[in-house]
Amino acid sequence: MTTTPRRGQRALVAATLAVATTLTGLAAAMPAQAAASTLGAAAAQSGRYFGTAIAAGRLNDSTYSTIANREFTMITAENEMKMDATEPNQNQFSYTDGDRILNWARSNGKQVRGHALAWYSQQPGWMQNMSGTALRNAMLNHVTQVATHYKGKIYAWDVVNEAFADGSSGARRDSNLQRTGN
After folding, report:
1. Helix/strand/coil for 144
2. Does the predicted model carry a pTM greater than 0.85?
3. CA-CA distance, 14 to 31, in Å (whole number)?
4. pLDDT tens, 45-95?
5. How wide is the angle at C-alpha 132 spanned by C-alphas 158 and 173, nearest 5°?
6. Enclosing H/E stretch for 51
7. Residue 165: exposed, middle, or buried by beta-carbon count in 10 A (0-12, 13-18, 19+)?
8. Contact yes or no for 112/75 (Cβ under 8 A)
9. How many helices (H) and strands (E) does the chain have?
10. pLDDT digits (tens, 9 = 90+) for 102-134
11. N vs C: which end of the chain shows fewer Cβ within 10 Å?
């Protein structure tokens, strides 16, 4: 009997296969004894890391976590470190799911990339209609609180996500964050 992988598993497997196909060409150019056994090891041979975004709710799925643990050296939280997840109510912070990903990654020898401190999308409801000084102060508080919580545990942060507008204009995205000022 075969089972159909769930959407998250399919995405993880598809990403793994796409990169595996790309890295196969690189591995073919190397002597056989130098070929890496995982995608993360292959990336490390050229001084790079190989990462994926994972969801805390999927860590109990053994296929998902086994592939993530075996193939990747860098882990990014899918949504668990974004504004709506870390500060669902103003000045009430929740790190449970972000910490779960962080702890899983670190216990498996992975580095963690934080994602994302400021984003026009996935803002908590209380923030969506804010502007001006109130929004600026709320963002300063949010960034300070979240970055302080994860200080020394996160390799790098995506501080501002998708700051530029879609398309080829090169303009900054019109959002309440951008309208607050540079």
Report:
1. helix
2. no
3. 27
4. 888 888 999 999 999 999 999 999 999 999 999 999 999 999 999 999 999
5. 45
6. strand 51-54
7. middle
8. yes
9. 7, 4
10. 999 999 999 999 999 888 788 999 998 888 899
11. N
